[in-house]
């Protein structure tokens, strides 16, 4: 009986560690005159969902690029700054051949994610990504 309780506790601990490892992406501090923290968190969630398509890649860090970047991108896209979010990330690729043009065994830093939305109450959409 004691052995089975031990194994159940061990199994629960392993499962908890697995889930803890899934959320190991680091984010920096956030401050903006254009949006609140909820808008930032929503944008990060959208990018992380989109990033699942990057097979063999591991996201290490994702941060807000800053109000200056947003203002410039909004001007290019002819949108209000509140409708554009620019994030920067760092991620690595595994040793496999990546058919999406990414180099194997490479660390990508300052990789940009451009998100847009129609209004401040509509969800973010990944509009563009890569190096600018």
Explain this structure.
The chain is of the alpha+beta class and 132 residues long. The protein has 3 helices and 5 strands; from the N terminus they run αβαβαβββ. Strands 1-2-3-4-5 form a 5-stranded mixed beta sheet. Strand 4 (107-116) and strand 5 form a beta hairpin. The longest helix has 21 residues, at 2-22. The protein is elongated. The N and C termini lie far apart (61 Å).
SSE layout:
Blueprint: H1 2-22, E1 26-27, H2 37-51, E2 57-64, H3 67-77, E3 84-93, E4 107-116, E5 125-130
Parallel strand pairs: 1-2
Antiparallel strand pairs: 2-3, 3-4, 4-5
- Percentage of residues assigned to helices: 25-40%
The number of helical runs is 3
Low-pLDDT segments, ≥5 res: 6-23
Averaged pLDDT, please?
84
Largest sheet: 5 strands, mixed
Order of helices and strands: HEHEHEEE
Gross morphology: elongated
Distance between the termini: 61 Å
SS strand fraction: 25-35%
Strand order of the largest sheet: 1-2-3-4-5
Find the structural class using helix and strand composition.
Answer: alpha+beta
CA-atom Rg in angstroms: 19 Å
Number of strands: 5
């Amino acid at each position: 009986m004691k052995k089975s309780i031990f194994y159940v506790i061990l199994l629960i601990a392993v499962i908890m560690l697995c889930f803890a490892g899934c959320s190991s992406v680091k984010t920096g501090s956030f401050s903006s005159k254009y949006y609140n923290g909820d808008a930032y968190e929503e944008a990060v969630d959208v990018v992380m969902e989109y990033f699942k398509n990057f097979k063999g890649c591991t996201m290490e860090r994702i941060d807000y690029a800053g109000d200056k970047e947003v203002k410039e991108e909004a001007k290019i896209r002819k949108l209000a700054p509140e409708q554009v979010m620019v994030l920067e990330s760092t991620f690595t690729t595994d040793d496999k051949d990546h058919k999406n043009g990414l180099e194997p065994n490479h660390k990508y830093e300052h990789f940009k994610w451009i998100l847009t939305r129609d209004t401040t109450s509509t969800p973010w959409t990944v509009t563009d990504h890569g190096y600018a």
